[in-house]
Write a structure and sequence with these properties.
Order of helices and strands: EEHEEEHHHH
Shape: globular
Strand content: 15-25%
Radius of gyration: 15 Å
Helix content: 25-40%
Largest sheet: 5 strands, mixed
Number of helices: 5
Bound molecules: FE2/S2 (inorganic) cluster
Strand order of the largest sheet: 2-1-5-3-4
Distance between the termini: 50 Å
Number of strands: 5
Length: 161
């Protein structure tokens, strides 16, 4: 299959690659860039494990499903994966709140939860508990530990004021 040249920014680094049009963004991140913090669960847009942050042109940062996008569709975009949330290798405020509230158990959903919560707090810095629950309703935690996750996001919002 013919490959396509793409250029994008991932975690602040310019990336150029040649990709088959059928390569998903999730597989591109994990297999080509070795950014394996982006997890793959259902591979059809249901679980949210693959959620990453994407900004394109003047559009604000959005949480997107990397399993539902092809890598070619990210051409020109600015992506942030969990590896890029805290460029200095330190936990950021949201990650610290997850740590404080024990908001991760097995951790499989955590990168997607962090991406979704980051997009939420960027758009709505003072969400209510219901708004947090609504925002993460597309991110499934198989360990069913949603209470501490909601508390962590609300705590991060509170401290970010
Ligand atoms: S792996 Fe993408 S939503 Fe489940
Ligand atoms: S912490 Fe186990 S799936 Fe979320």
């Amino acid at each position: 299959m013919a490959e396509h040249a793409i250029g994008l920014t991932v975690n602040g680094q310019a990336v150029s690659a040649s990709v088959e049009p059928r390569l998903t963004l999730a597989d591109f991140l994990r297999q080509r860039l070795r950014l394996t913090g982006t997890h793959v669960g259902c591979e059809h847009g249901v679980c949210g494990a693959c959620t990453v942050l994407m900004a394109d042109g003047d559009n604000p940062v959005q949480a997107v499903r990397a399993c539902l996008m092809f890598a070619v569709q990210a051409d020109g975009a600015r992506l942030t994966t969990v590896e890029g949330l805290s460029p200095e290798g330190e936990l950021n405020d949201l990650q610290r709140a997850f740590q404080r509230h024990h908001a991760l158990q097995c951790g499989f959903c955590t990168p997607g939860m962090l991406a979704t919560a980051t997009a939420l707090l960027a758009a709505n810095p003072r969400p209510s508990a219901d708004e947090v629950r609504e925002a993460i309703s597309g991110n499934l935690c198989r360990c069913t530990g949603y209470v501490p996750i909601v508390e962590a996001i609300l705590d991060a919002a509170e401290r970010g004021r």
